[in-house]
Amino acid sequence: MNLTTQQQLAKGEPVELEIDGEQCVLLTRQTFERVTSSELDASPWTAEEMDLLAAEAAELVTGDGLDQKDD
Questions:
Q1: What is the per-residue DSSP string for 8-31?
Q2: What is the pLDDT of residues 6-57, one digit of tens each?
Q3: Model pTM?
């Protein structure tokens, strides 16, 4: 069973369409705001991961370049 565009939007589902050869997705404002709200973290790294990477980079810069830690 296929839903109409209005039925898809009423259920909060995205609607795929093409405009002048460009692939687009149509969302209701409510769905868009929910997806783009501050609750969604789409960043590639968490703060903890960035801290761990910074510590690892600092160790590489101050170390002798070998895999063993300095004493």
A1: HHHTT--EEEEETTEEEEE--HHH
A2: 888 888 888 999 999 999 999 888 888 887 775 666 678 888 888 998 998 8
A3: 0.45
Domain boundaries, the chain: 5-62
What's the rounded Cα separation, in Å, for the pair 7 and 10? 5
Q: Give the C-alpha separation, 57 to 63, whole Å.
A: 10
Two tokens at 1? Answer: 């069973």
Name which of 22, 1, 20, 24 is nearest 11 in CA terms: 1
Distance CA 9, CA 24 (A): 14
